[in-house]
Design a protein that fits this description.
44% helix; Arc Repressor Mutant, subunit A; 5-stranded mixed sheet; 373 residues; 3-stranded mixed sheet; globular; alpha+beta; 17 helices
Length: 373
C-alpha cells in the first residue's frame, strides 16, 4: 500500500464528489450509476430514483421503472445496515450473503416484540414464498390481505418485520412496478441464476469485491466508513481492504483510496483550476450523506439540524452549491405539474441560483412533468 501526502477538506470534497458522480453527469443508463455506487439507499420509496437523475444525463423515472419491471436489471432489497438499497441484479447474491446474517438477530428481536414466535414467522415466510411463486409479484397491500386472510398478525410493525425476514432469507426482492407501487417478487423466479447463493470459498473474494466497489463510489474513506456503510464488523472491512492492499493508497487520518484514481488526479496539469462543482438537487437519504461515518465535507455541522431534524430518523432532500449542502427542497406533484420549492440556509449567489433553477427543470423533465412557474 502506497502512502500519499495529507489531504485537505476541499480536496476531500472534490475526490468524494467525483466518486459519487456529483462533479459531472455520466453518460449511460440507470445501471451505470447504481453499479458505480454499488448500492443506492432506497429507504424513501417516493424519491430514491432522483439520486440516479442527479448523476446520469438524460434518464427518466420511466427508464428506472423499466429496469425494475421489464429488464429486471435493478432490484431493491434490505441489504447494508438492514436498510432498503437499490442494486444491480448481478450483485444481489454475494451482497445478500455478506450482509444478511448481520441482521438476523435484530429482525428476530423485533419479531418477538411484535408477538410473533419463530414457528409463526417460518409459516408466514413460507406462505409469502408460495403466494409469490404461484401468483407472481404482489404489492405490500396485497400480501398483507393474504396474510390476514390466513390468520397472521400484520398490525404495528409486524408486516414490515415479516417482509424483512422474507427478503433477508433470500426468498423475495422488491422488483417490478404495479401501478405506482413496487411489488415483491419471488427471488429465484424473478432473477434466475442471479439469485443462487454463492458456493465454495466465496467470502474472502466477496469482502475484497465489497471493499473495491465501496471505494469506487465513496473513496477516499476509512475502514470505519466501510464497516458502518455495509453494516459489517470492522474485522470484515479490514479483511476486504487488506485483500486489495496493493491497489490502495493511504492518506492522513486513515483515509484510503484506489491508487489508479489518485494517480489520475495527481497527473492534472499543475496550476490549473478545477471547475466548480455543479449545483444539484438530491433526494432524501442521498448516498452522499449516508456513505461515511461523518457527513462532512458534504454537510457542515452547523447545518445538520436543518437536514436531519432532532431524533435522526429523517433526512430531508437537499440542494448543493459548490458541492456542499446549501438548502433543503421539496416537490409537489399536481397532475402534470411539478411544484418545486427551495429553502436556502443562506443567500445563494447568482450562479448557484441559476444552477438550481436548471436542476428544478430537470427534475420535472425526469418525472415527465412541466415545472410550475
Amino acid at each position: 500500500m502506497a502512502v500519499t501526502n495529507s489531504i485537505g477538506g476541499w480536496q476531500l470534497l472534490r475526490l468524494r464528489s467525483a466518486s459519487q458522480l456529483l462533479d459531472r453527469r455520466v453518460a449511460g443508463e440507470p445501471e451505470t450509476v447504481v453499479r458505480a455506487l454499488l448500492a443506492v439507499q432506497a429507504q424513501d420509496r417516493t424519491s430514491w430514483r432522483l439520486a440516479l437523475r442527479a448523476r446520469a444525463a438524460g434518464i427518466t423515472a420511466a427508464d428506472v421503472n423499466h429496469r425494475l419491471t421489464d429488464r429486471r436489471s435493478l432490484i431493491v432489497a434490505w441489504l447494508n445496515r438492514g436498510t432498503l438499497h437499490t442494486i444491480c441484479s448481478e450483485d444481489y447474491s454475494w451482497l445478500l450473503a455478506l450482509t444478511a446474517p448481520s441482521q438476523v438477530t435484530a429482525n428476530s428481536r423485533r419479531l418477538a416484540q411484535e408477538g410473533l414466535e419463530p414457528e409463526v414467522v417460518d409459516r408466514a415466510v413460507a406462505f409469502i414464498e408460495g403466494a409469490l411463486a404461484t401468483e407472481g409479484p404482489q404489492t405490500r397491500t396485497e400480501l398483507r390481505e393474504r396474510l390476514v386472510d390466513r390468520g397472521f398478525r400484520t398490525d404495528g410493525q409486524a408486516m414490515v418485520q415479516l417482509l424483512f425476514a422474507t427478503v433477508n432469507r433470500g426468498v423475495a426482492v422488491l422488483g417490478p412496478m404495479k401501478g405506482v407501487h413496487q411489488a415483491f417478487a419471488h427471488a429465484r423466479e424473478w432473477l434466475g441464476r442471479a439469485a443462487e447463493p454463492p458456493t465454495g470459498e466465496w467470502r474472502e473474494p466477496a469482502l475484497a469485491e465489497l471493499a473495491r466497489r465501496y471505494l469506487i463510489g465513496h473513496g477516499p474513506a476509512t475502514q470505519h466508513d466501510l464497516a458502518k456503510w455495509a453494516g459489517l464488523p470492522l474485522r470484515d472491512a479490514r479483511s476486504g481492504l487488506r485483500s486489495i492492499g496493493s491497489d490502495l493508497v493511504e492518506m492522513d487520518g486513515g483515509l484510503l483510496d484506489l491508487a489508479n484514481r489518485t494517480a489520475a488526479a495527481d497527473s492534472e496539469e499543475p496550476g490549473t483550476r478545477a471547475p466548480a462543482l455543479p449545483p444539484r438537487l438530491l433526494p432524501a437519504w442521498d448516498p452522499c450523506l449516508v456513505g461515511w461515518a461523518a457527513r462532512e465535507p458534504f454537510l457542515q455541522r452547523e447545518d445538520e439540524s436543518l437536514v436531519i431534524p432532532p431524533g435522526g430518523g429523517l433526512f430531508r432532500p437537499v440542494a448543493t452549491a459548490a458541492g456542499v449542502v446549501a438548502a433543503t427542497w421539496n416537490i409537489r406533484r399536481e397532475r402534470e405539474r411539478a411544484i418545486i420549492g427551495i429553502d436556502p440556509f443562506r443567500p445563494l449567489d447568482a450562479d448557484a441560483s441559476a444552477g438550481l433553477t436548471a436542476e428544478a427543470e430537470d427534475v420535472a423533465r425526469f418525472e415527465g412533468m412541466a415545472l410550475a412557474r
